[in-house]
Description:
Blueprint lengths: L2 H16 L11 E3 L4 E4 L3 E4 L3 E3 L5 E5 L9 E4 L7 E9 L4 E6 L4 E3 L2 E2 L2 E2 L12 E6 L3 E10 L5 E4 L11 E4 L2 E9 L18 E5 H10 L8 E2 L4
Parallel strand pairs: 1-9
Antiparallel strand pairs: 2-3, 2-6, 4-5, 4-18, 5-8, 6-7, 7-8, 10-11, 12-13, 12-15, 13-14, 14-17, 15-16, 16-17
Amino acid sequence: MCRPILRALVTALTVVFVAPALPANAQYAVTLGGGSGLVIDGDTLCTLTAIGTDRQGNLIGFTSAHCGGPGAQVASEAEENAGVVGTMVAGNDSLDYAVIQFDRGKVRPVNTVDGFRIDGLGPDPKFGDVACKLGRTTGYSCGVTWGPGEEPGTILNQVCGGPGDSGAPVTVNNRLIGMIHGAFSENLPTCIVKFIPLHTPAVTMSINTQLADIAAKGRPGSGFVPVGAG
């Protein structure tokens, strides 16, 4: 056997025997962004508002506080077999936000889910601004902004929502302005959008109000910047 062939054979055998084998339970990164479905503590379905980093460099996301509280375990609905990928580390029931700290080794953060893009944070919308949302239950919908809601930090938008959409991102011009909190009225349908949006407005929690509260209390998530912000 000639020497070049012998050297190639030795090299190939070295790679085979030296390359480490992956453990059977090796984790892989799941893709998560605003609008992704979440499973909280194994049984509660909600929607991720957005994902990005705080001033400490932590990988942070948000959803509604009524989905779970500090210590709650978070998994991806689409890739639940990946197991727990984050933990709720802070929240505020009155402003209905929960802060999620994700494991960087288990999550690939994105700013676009099913064509719904978040380019950064935006100011609270004014009357007439068109808002859009993406929820894991009712999907994509858009409608006008009516103005502030009755409770502090709330906004009324003519987008639809249903169970599981809690925490869903609401944007204006692809800028995040809030998350779905609930329906304005229980006496009207929550989601009829085939022809005309003849449904109750959604109550949106202002992300600016929530982030101000987080910063004032020095909580994880302070200085949040969504992934892909420009």
